[in-house]
Every structure is written in C-alpha cells, then in structure tokens.
Design goal:
Layout lengths: L10 H21 L3 H26 L3 H31 L13
Helix pairs in contact: 1-2, 2-3
Length: about 110
C-alpha cells in the first residue's frame, strides 16, 4: 500500500482540474440568463471545491476533506431543491426562466 506522500497522481493535477471546472462554472454564472443553466454552473463550482477537499484529504492522509465534501454535496442537494422551486415560480409567473425578467417582480 502506498503512503499518503507517494500518490500516483500529483495533487497539482487535481488542483488544475479543479481550477478548470471552477472557471467553467464561473463563466456560466456570469454569462447565462437561463436560471437552470445558472444552477448547473453553481453546481460545477461546488464540485470544484469538492475536488480540492478530496485531493488535500488524500495528500494529508485524513478523512476531514472527504467529510467536508459530503457536507457540500448535501448543501448542493438542498440548493437544487430550493432552486427548482424558484425556477417553477419564475416559469409560472413569466412563462420563461430568464433571470433578468425577475427584476420586474419589485413593487
């Protein structure tokens, strides 16, 4: 069995992968108007954080990062449940899920 310091894949590769996934998610958040694509982009950003947690957990040889990743996944599931409800309300009121139309909901 390999020691935690003798990883087959270096941690830097995980960090590069995580940075790439996070940048794709950030690009999606900043450029999309569709609320569903917005939620998917936020999920990508949360998954990038999970990759970091698990990579550093593997490097240091403890389970703390994996535990935090499980909590982030639970948070993501709750976010999706709330987000789908908001999307349904947007669609019901505006017949579309464009997030820029929601500014007309102000009184």
């Amino acid at each position: 069995m390999l020691a935690p310091t003798q990883l087959l894949v270096p941690v830097e590769w995980y960090l590069v992968l995580s940075a790439g996934v996070f940048c794709i998610g950030l690009f999606g958040v900043l450029t999309r108007r569709n609320a569903l694509m917005f939620l998917i982009s936020v999920e990508l950003m949360l998954n990038a954080a999970n990759i970091n947690f698990v990579a550093f957990s593997l490097q240091w040889g403890n389970l703390t990062g994996q535990t935090f990743a499980l909590f982030v996944m639970a948070l993501a599931a709750a976010e999706v449940a709330i987000g789908i409800g908001i999307i349904l309300v947007l669609y019901r009121n505006f017949r579309g899920i464009d997030v820029t139309e929601a500014t007309t909901m102000r009184w």
